[in-house]
Design goal:
By secondary structure, the chain is of the alpha/beta class. It has a single domain, classed as Aldolase class I (TIM Barrel), CATH 3.20.20.70. Helix content is 44%, strand content 16%. The radius of gyration is 17 Å and the shape is globular.
């Protein structure tokens, strides 16, 4: 079983498993399998703390029915990633997931590229953040670890942010990785000072996790692609357990 707590009194770092690429396997052939609900249950039985899915406007993987099924049939927090698009906002208001994470979205991208420009889109984001909050949904913004973006998130009234870790994970050199890690460290400190819950995600796997575990004030890591890829070899439950063991090294305080 994965460890239940970290040494030093800090609550354990939480894992939200993104199931988008379980749905990708299904959509490639138009089959009914693999079942997204079964995948969610396996992850939770292995110790995951919540489920994350991204309902994209082009429906390339997660489908509307998946969102409704997971909310109705899985007894765990559901985090719905979504663009600030009226159609998707309306679905969120019907489903009432525990959390919505607003992300940037472009049709031609393979996956989300970079953080949301919260500072440049405050006027467009404000009504959505307010509407979701009024419906009892916790709102997170997927942003770069940049003071300007974090301050915009706080002004918008979002209680949490998810720091984009992609630039760190994809860094082409140790020097570049160190620079990106420095940005994450400073961003987490600034977010915490602003009263925001600090989550992180994008591109994370057990190989690059140690650097991210140096980032203070983290509550949740949202991880998907690497877990589904690892599951090809060891199964989904074991992939989740491996990740939880790696995450147990987190101490939570200042490095």
């Amino acid at each position: 079983m994965p460890p239940e707590s970290s040494r030093g009194g800090h609550p354990p770092l939480r894992l939200g498993v993104n199931l988008d690429h379980v749905a990708t396997l299904r959509q490639v052939r138009g089959t009914e399998y693999p079942d997204i609900l079964e995948a969610a249950r396996l992850c939770l039985e292995a110790g995951a703390h919540g489920i994350t899915i991204h309902l994209r406007e082009d429906r390339r993987h997660i489908q509307d029915a998946d969102v409704f099924r997971l909310k109705a049939e899985v007894d765990a927090p559901l985090n719905l990633e979504m663009a600030n698009a009226p159609e998707i906002v309306n679905i969120a208001l019907q489903v009432r997931p525990d959390e919505v994470c607003l992300v940037p979205e472009r049709r031609q991208e393979l996956t989300t590229e970079g953080g949301l420009d919260a500072a440049g889109q405050e006027d467009a984001l404000a009504p959505t953040v307010r509407t979701l909050a009024d419906a009892g949904i916790q709102v997170s913004l997927f942003v770069e670890a940049d003071a300007r973006q974090l301050e915009a998130a706080a002004r918008l009234g979002a209680p949490m942010v998810e720091l984009h870790t992609g630039a760190y994970c994809d860094a082409a050199s140790d020097q570049a990785a160190d620079a990106e890690l420095g940005r994450l460290l400073q961003g987490a400190r600034r977010a915490h000072a602003l009263g925001l819950q600090v989550n992180a995600g994008h591109g994370l796997h057990t190989g690059n996790l140690p650097g991210v575990l140096r980032v203070p004030h983290l509550d949740t890591l949202n991880i998907g692609h690497s877990l589904v890829a690892r599951a090809v070899f060891v199964g989904l439950a074991e992939a989740v357990r491996e990740m939880l063991v790696a995450m147990a090294a987190y101490r939570g305080g200042e490095p």
